[in-house]
Amino acid sequence: MIIEFRCEREHARRWMHRETLSVDGRDVPVQIAWTATAESRPAGLDALFALERMVLHKGKPGGADGLKIIPKRTQARTGTADVIVDFTGGARDRDCSASLYLRPLFNGTAGENAALAAILAGDMPVIDIVNEIDGAVLDRGHPSGETAAGLSGALETVMARTLTMVAAILSGRPRILPQLSRPAGAMNRRGPVGYVVRGLVVSIAKEIYRLCCYAPHWHIGWRFNDGAGVWQTGDLSGPRWNVLGDPGNHFYADPFPVTWRGRTFVFFEDLDHRVGKGIISAIEFGDTGPVRDVMPVLEEPWHLSYPFLIEDDGELWMIPESSINGDVALYKCVRFPDQWERHATLLSGLELADATITRHNGLNYLFGAWRDGAGGYSDSLAIYYADHLLGPWLPHASNPVLIDRASTRPAGNFVTINERLWRPVQNCADGYGAALALAEVIELSPTTFKQIVRHSLKPGPAWPGRKLHTLNRCGRLEVIDGSRVQPKTSAFARQFPSPALPPRTRPSTAS
């Protein structure tokens, strides 16, 4: 197979300059056909990108940067292209003999200007990949902007996820088209200069914030609930949420409660701001709340978070998020709650965040937020399935089964209510971890997947704060998490806590 990218010569960017595209681990040859400019770009765009590179990206080059040597003519071709991917806004070449002519659309319009217009209007565009030969939409996705800094970073992210979708189509795997509404806001479009200036101001404000405060600072909410919980009400109402006390220079996130051999513990990510690496810690809960101190239970040389727990074959297992290490590892509890041994590697050679398992119709399904080395970390859902917890784990026929920043990333345990399967998901439309959604899984098999978001949960009167990104329950105990402003001076004050309660277990109300 030979792929041909059609790109505008006068707006050649670094992301276009490639010789191959990875398709299912194979490097497929890519040739570039440089075409005439179909539409002019906003004046001064390259200068603004250069400014962003110096200020926002610390001088590091990015995919949106212009090529230093602009090609003057069409790149030498290695052969007749089997697939055309046309990134321009120009008309299709009707004389081309390629069997597949792909055209990325950004909020329904072709070309880089359409992607820029969506970003300037305040949001990432919905991406459609259309086969222009028959007009069929072959894939659809909505990328996450969590790692995108400035206009150039947002454009790079959009194009990176576009290539993810093109590679998925070319793999031959069946695609599952989600129903995604295009973002509103075209009337609020800002000019490039205004957008970049605002981005620089926000960046400076964030740096000042980081100098004064620990950022982000997550905290865990808990409550005992004898009545209908979040899954039944679809909101955070009910008994008052309490906050698990922390020492100030640590944050706690991703709570997973479990009752094992008569004792209830909440396991969670414990990150020391001074080190910048997470470990897994736990705290015991009694009839009235947390008891004793927080204890570390698992640490590796790499960052750990999201300690998903599962009981299988009479044993308790943990799958902590370790995507930075490039694998999904299974740990066995050899002494509850504080001794865990690495038992097996379920998946390797991939970035898969927040692995979460459910058993459905006789099979185990593992969900995770997958990243192919570019773009955001929360917009692409991969599913694997196996007969047994230890595997072997096989990929879903349509991986990635969903690209949507608002309903992809796992946010806690699956729940079955009245024989209906549900999953909490992170809604990252307004940034990483900004809100939760409750999605009903309508179809799930090794070849199918469909979910419908039924409820959205955001911080508010019941849970004041800035974010919300995990939900779990064990018996009467419900747990969530969120973030708050944590001045660095508070960490010093907490070195001298009141002797009334241990500093890491003192409960407080949500604030």
Automatic annotation (TrEMBL):
- Reading the lineage from the top rank, the first entry is Bacteria
Q: What range(s) does the Glucosamine inositolphosphorylceramide transferase 1 N-terminal domain occupy?
A: 250-472
Which Pfam families does the annotation name?
GINT1_N
Any one Gene Ontology biological process term? Answer: xylan catabolic process
Q: Which InterPro entries match?
A: GINT1_N, Glyco_hydro_beta-prop_sf, Glycosyl_Hydrlase_43_Enz
Q: Keywords on this record? A: Carbohydrate metabolism, Polysaccharide degradation, Xylan degradation
**Region spans: Disordered:** 491-511
Q: What is this protein called?
A: Bll3360 protein
Species whose genome carries this gene? Bradyrhizobium diazoefficiens (strain JCM 10833 / BCRC 13528 / IAM 13628 / NBRC 14792 / USDA 110)
What lineage is on file? Bacteria, Pseudomonadati, Pseudomonadota, Alphaproteobacteria, Hyphomicrobiales
